[in-house]
Design goal:
The complex is a heterodimer.
Chain A: H1 4-11, H2 14-46, E1 56-63, H3 74-91, E2 95-100, E3 112-116, E4 128-134, H4 139-143, E5 147-150, E6 159-162, E7 171-175, H5 176-182, E8 191-194, E9 200-207, E10 226-229, E11 231-234, E12 237-244, H6 249-263, E13 267-268, E14 274-276, H7 277-284, H8 286-320, H9 322-330, H10 335-371, H11 379-405
Parallel strand pairs in A: 4-10, 6-11, 7-9
Antiparallel strand pairs in A: 1-12, 1-13, 1-14, 2-12, 3-4, 3-8, 5-9, 7-10, 8-9
Helix pairs in contact in A: 2-8, 2-10, 2-11, 3-6, 8-11, 10-11
Chain B: H1 2-15, H2 17-44, E1 56-57, H3 82-90, E2 96-108, E3 117-124, H4 128-131, E4 136-139, H5 144-149, E5 153-156, H6 158-165, E6 174-177, E7 180-188, E8 212-215, H7 216-221, E9 230-231, E10 245-246, E11 249-253, H8 257-277, H9 290-296, H10 302-332, H11 334-342, H12 347-381, H13 395-421, H14 425-431
Parallel strand pairs in B: 3-8, 5-7
Antiparallel strand pairs in B: 1-11, 2-3, 2-6, 2-11, 4-7, 5-8, 6-7, 9-10
Helix pairs in contact in B: 1-12, 2-10, 2-12, 2-13, 10-13, 11-14, 12-13
The chains are: A alpha+beta, B alpha+beta.
């Protein structure tokens, strides 16, 4: 089949051709970028935190009328309040283990600093940024993080200090990512200096993976860099991560508030205070999931609208060329030739649309990169997008083209 | 004549129901998506204090050290240190001015069984509430003397008054905040500027108003800590009044351009003086008004703007689609047009007829789009976002929906109507 008569025919329908091509181009540009955004969000949401997330929950509470931490002896008073809470929580029948902790991955409340190989390197000159998790000897077990080298904390390692007191611990555990950055030849037993201090901190263990609490783009440079310190922080508030026995999460979540009020009623414990890790995850990624769903729905509707547009215009053309089709059939064209004619015609228009669409998609991507936090659109997405619109065009044109191929040759003999 | 066009259009649309439904549906989806995202965008980028925002300015300076300074790129800091805030405040170069910082209060109910709970607290100076036009139900704001004396007085929000005192006039009674008694001097009526312009760099830009408003010095004396502290050097954040930390905002009321220019001169002079004294190393200042400050802080989330952009792209495709379908429809009726032209209809009449048809599609699309927009906003209200409950279609957006719908449909109808009216009658008649 030669393209010449087809192009000549399309010249008669310039407006229609331009409209379909334009629609396909716009659809390709928007859908390509939208799918790319969806992909990025999904990737972000699916990255594992390093925790064993099931049966894990967090309690955040504040004492009322507790010492401020400024007076001598305040820290010990605060510590005894915390110890009382811990004892009560560990006594609960469905609780497997509990750790007092300053934050959890995805909680968006973090304490960050830097780790350096030399003492006295200031904040900005550190060798790696890191987040800090402070907890006692139950930390690894409660969080479910995997120790890959060295040892875990023991009760003898654990110190306690005021929330605002400066001071670096003699030992710490780091994540594999941070260990590789600082000591590619193995980190256990090596010495680092935290936050520009002159006090050495010896790495006693390495955990496989643990994400930072922040989920904003500002953490992109150090998402997997965490330092675990064997320190119970004492302040007028506290957080407890609780690992429940399998399947007992809901029961513990219900029971924990009365237990803590039983220990000491002078505290703030509201609806937001008790959260399962699933809640924390959902909250952290709510915007990402919402955006992905919205983009997905819009893409589907867009594709539907474009397909409907192609069906509509092609049907009209088939109706308009009823007679010509009859003439071609009478002159010996087979049904399949008519079918192919409309299919090729659509391929041609969709191809033009796709070429414009690729340019638009790249332009849109560049614009988005300039105005928003966005990466470069991978070529694979563009190729997949082009293939998708061509298939979409073929699928949409099939029904009208079939109808055209069923036009009987006798139509040629009738005056319309 | 118009009635006749309506009748013709109605018949023509009825003749090809599938195509008509498709056009209306596509247009409605595009319009629904646009109105939903625009409503959210308008909500997020709205004026928190209509009528007052143009007179409120936010002075900014930069106490950072010299290193890291890039001329033309480094921006003045978001907040002020205690020292700078007080120096600027004490100079009294504006008719009204107020220092403000956000904090959090543990509120203890008086009844024995009540559990303590958290409330957002605003630490401010006396003129803050009158300056932003907060309405009082009972009592009034505290005085400048209360500020200097560090008086333990408080203004509470209506919802807190409801919760603590059952909505009664609570002026003169006490509220226990962070373990200290504060005497209520005023109860606000509904006061909830959106976005909460005085609290935007801490991620709580929208949503319910603040519970308690109390004098800055008294709040600090009871160790209420500001929510947003940023320090450029190691310092003791227990003693924020001397630490190299920024945590205060200063709002000044400047009634006209001359006052703004005066204040800008004063601010520049202040910074030069500080540089001369060796306290400052950077001379950049800024004095944005309220709306400019919101734009600088990019208070509208990127996702909301991206969604609105997506919705407009979507509408563009829907309009293209409608053009195509209308074109197909009207070209199919070439013969009918030929007959009408032969019987004396002018080109203008044919053009008008097809535009009326497009307008009907637009109105139907707008009506259905309104339903989609309401459904979309309903969905957003059921999201747990902080601004969710505010997402409602107001009267102007309601009207705007129809303007957008009609405009899109008429734009879509232009090309088909033009093509219809240039149809030459003779060939159409001959071929039959």
């Amino acid at each position: 089949m030669t393209l010449h008569p087809m192009i000549a025919a399309l010249r008669k329908h310039k407006a229609g051709v331009v409209l379909i091509a334009l629609q396909i181009a716009l659809t390709l540009a928007i859908v390509c970028n939208a799918v790319f955004i969806i992909g990025q969000r999904v990737q972000r949401v699916n990255r594992p935190t390093g925790l064993d997330e099931s049966n894990l929950m967090l309690v955040t509470q504040q004492w009322v009328g507790a010492p401020s931490g400024d007076q001598p002896g305040d820290v010990d008073k605060l510590d005894s309040l915390q110890q009382a809470d811990l004892a009560a929580l560990r006594n609960m029948p469905d609780v497997a283990s509990v750790v007092p902790i300053n934050s959890l991955p995805l909680l968006n409340s973090s304490w960050n600093g830097s780790a350096a190989l030399k003492p006295g390197t200031d904040l900005r000159g550190g060798n790696a940024r890191t987040t800090y998790y402070f907890g006692d000897e139950h930390m690894l077990k409660t969080l479910g993080v995997k120790l890959v080298a060295g040892r875990a904390f023991t009760a003898a390692d654990v110190q306690h200090r005021g929330f605002r007191d400066q001071g670096e611990p003699p030992i710490a555990i780091v994540t594999q990512a941070l260990a590789d950055k600082l000591f590619p030849q193995g980190a256990v037993g090596k010495v680092m200096y935290l936050d520009g201090s002159g006090t050495p901190t010896t790495i006693i263990g390495v955990v496989q993976r643990l994400q930072v609490p922040g989920t904003g783009s500002w953490t992109n440079g150090f998402v997997w860099n965490a330092t675990l310190e064997p320190v119970r922080l004492n302040a007028n508030f506290s957080r407890y991560a609780i690992r429940t026995k399998p399947g007992r999460l809901q029961a513990v979540m219900k029971a924990v508030t009365p237990v803590l009020y039983g220990v000491n009623p002078m505290r703030v414990l509201d609806d937001d205070s008790v959260k399962s890790f699933a809640d924390i995850r959902a909250e952290a990624y709510r915007a990402d999931v919402g955006m992905a769903v919205l983009m997905g729905v819009v893409c589907l509707i867009l594709i539907g609208v474009t397909a409907a547009g192609i069906v509509g215009l092609t049907s009209f053309w088939v109706g308009q060329r009823h007679r010509q089709i009859g003439v071609r059939r009478a002159l010996g064209a087979r049904k399949v030739d008519i079918l192919h004619y409309f299919q090729t015609e659509n391929l041609l228009i969709a191809g033009i649309g796709a070429v414009i669409g690729v340019l638009l998609a790249i332009g849109l991507n560049l614009w988005l990169m300039h105005h928003y936090e966005m990466d470069r659109l991978p070529v694979l997405y563009v190729i997949a997008g082009v293939a998708a619109v061509l298939v979409l065009g073929q699928a949409a044109v099939f029904a009208p083209a079939r109808r055209a191929s069923n036009v009987p040759p006798v139509v040629a003999t009738r005056s319309v | 004549m118009f009635g006749y066009y309506l009748q013709l259009a109605w018949r023509s649309l009825g003749r090809n129901r599938v195509l008509t439904t498709l056009m209306v549906l596509a247009l409605a989806l595009g319009i629904g998506a646009c109105i939903t995202t625009l409503t959210v965008l308008r909500l997020l980028s709205g004026d928190p204090l209509p009528g007052r925002s143009a007179q409120l300015y936010y002075p900014q300076v930069d106490p950072y050290p010299k290193d890291g300074y890039v001329p033309g790129q480094s921006k003045p800091q978001e907040n002020l240190t205690w020292v700078d805030a007080n120096n600027l405040f004490e100079a009294h170069r504006a008719p009204r001015q107020a220092l403000v910082a956000l904090g959090s209060a543990k509120i203890q109910p008086h009844d024995a069984g009540g559990r303590p709970f958290f409330g957002d607290a605003v630490m401010a100076t006396a003129e803050f509430l009158p300056m932003v036009g907060a309405p009082f139900r009972y009592g009034s704001a505290w005085s400048a003397d209360d500020d200097t004396a560090g008086a333990r007085v408080v203004v509470i929000a209506d919802f807190l008054n409801q919760k603590l005192f059952g909505g009664a006039n609570s002026v003169g009674r006490t509220v226990r905040l962070n373990g200290n008694d504060f005497r209520v001097v005023g109860v606000l009526g509904h006061f909830s500027p959106q976005p909460r312009f005085y609290a935007i760099n801490i991620g709580r830009s929208y949503g319910d108003g603040d519970g308690v408003f109390l004098p800055l010095r008294a709040a600090r004396a009871t160790e209420m800590a500001p929510t947003n502290i940023s320090c450029w050097a190691a310092g003791d954040i227990e003693h924020l009044e001397t630490a190299p930390c920024m945590w205060l905002g200063l709002w000044v009321e400047l009634p006209d351009a001359a006052a703004v220019a005066n204040y800008q001169r004063f601010l520049d002079g202040y910074v030069r003086e500080q540089v001369a004294q060796g306290r400052f190393h950077r001379t950049d200042t800024a004095l944005p008004d309220l709306m400019q400050w919101l734009r600088n802080e990019q208070v509208v989330p990127d996702d909301a703007r991206l969604q609105a952009g997506l919705a407009f792209g979507f509408l563009l495709i829907c309009v293209t689609n409608t053009i195509g379908l209308l074109l197909a429809k009207c070209l199919r009726r070439s013969r009918e047009i030929g007959v009408r032209r032969a019987l004396g209809a002018t080109r203008g009449a044919i053009f008008g007829q097809f535009m009326v048809e497009a307008a009907i599609v637009g109105l139907a699309g707008g009506l259905l789009g309104l339903v989609f927009a309401e459904a979309g906003l309903w969905g957003i209200r059921h999201q747990p976002a902080e601004y969710a409950s505010l997402a409602r279609l107001d009267l102007s957006m309601f009207a705007f929906t129809f303007v957008v719908a009609l405009a899109s449909a008429l734009v879509a109808g232009l090309l088909p109507a033009w093509r219809a009216c240039v149809v030459a009658p003779a060939p159409q008649l001959k071929s039959s």
